[in-house]
Amino acid sequence: MSLEFLTAQGWQAKRHTLTTFQTYLWGTLFALPFILLAGGMYRMFLFDRAVLLDHTGLILLAVIIVSVPLHEALHGFGWKLAGRLQKGDVTFFVHNGIPMCACRTVLPTKAYLTGTLLPFFILGGGSFIFLLFCPGTISVLTALVNLMLPGADLAISWFVLRSEAELIADNPDGAGFIGLVKNQE
After folding, report:
1. Which DSSP helix (H) or strand (E) runs through 129?
2. Do 37 and 112 contact (CB within 8 A), yes or no?
3. 159 φ, ψ (degrees, to nearest 5)
4. According to the model, what pLDDT value does residue 7 have?
5. Which tops the pLDDT comparison, 33 or 10?
6. Is the Cβ–Cβ distance between 155 and 113 less than 8 Å?
7. Rounded to whole angstroms, how far apart are CA atoms 154 and 95?
8. Are 127 and 26 in contact (CB under 8 A)?
9. CA 65, CA 58: separation in Å to the nearest integer?
10. What are the boundaries of each domain within the chain?
11. What does each C-alpha distance from 90 to 17, 105, 154 come to in angstroms?
C-alpha cells in the first residue's frame, strides 16, 4: 500500500516531522532518564569493580562506528519482520557519511513502533546488561552511546502514540512520520 493510494481511499494523512534542532532536543530529553540511570548506577554501585582503560576517545569512536550501523540495521529488521515486508520495502543508505535506514511502505502502528523501538530494546537494553555484568570503560561508553542513539526514536514513538494514527509511513524527508487516520464519514 502506498501513501497516495490510501489518501485516495479516504485516509487522512498528517505529517509529524521534527527539525534538526527538535530531533536533538527531544532525543536528548527522552534519552536522559536512561542515561542518568545507567551512569548513576555505574557510579554508585559498579565503579569499585570497574575495569578502567586509557584511550577513552578511541574506545568511544569504536563504539560509535559499531553501534550506528547496528542501530539502523535493527530498525530495518524490526520493520521487515513486524510488517512482513518484501525485498526493497526497507532501504539502507548513507546520508552525510552516516548510515541510515528507511521504511518505504505504510505499516500498521504496532509494526512501525516495533521497528522504531527495536534498537532501544536490543542495543540499549543489551548495553545496560553488559554494564551490570562487566563494568568498566568499554561497557559504560557502550551503554551511554546505545541509550543516547535511540533518544529521537523514543520521542517519535511517543508522538506516534499521541497521534492515534492507525497506519504510519516513515517520513522520507527527515525525522518523523506521516500518520494516517481513516476519515469519519
Report:
1. helix 125-133
2. no
3. -65, -35
4. 84
5. 33
6. no
7. 21
8. no
9. 10
10. 3-182
11. 20, 8, 20
Please tell me the pTM assigned to this model. Answer: 0.91
What order of strands is seen across the sheet that includes strand 176-182?
Answer: 11-17, 176-182, 167-170, 106-108
Mean pLDDT score across all residues of the chain: 93
- Percent of the chain at pLDDT > 90 equals 80
Contact by Cβ (8 Å): 79, 117: no
d(CA 79, CA 116): 8
Q: Residues 6 or more apart from 166 whose CB is under 8 A from it?
A: 108, 109, 180, 181, 182
The band of 51, judged by pLDDT with boundaries at 50, 70 and 90, is confident
Q: Which of 119, 102, 107 is nearest to 67 (CA)?
A: 119
Would you say 74 and 119 are in contact if contact means Cβ atoms under 8 Å apart?
yes
Q: Are strands 106-108 and 167-170 parallel, antiparallel or unpaired?
A: antiparallel
| Pairing, β 176-182 against β 90-95 | unpaired
- At position 156, the amino acid (one-letter code) is I
For residue 40 the three cell numbers come to: 548513576
97, 125 contact by CB (below 8 A): no
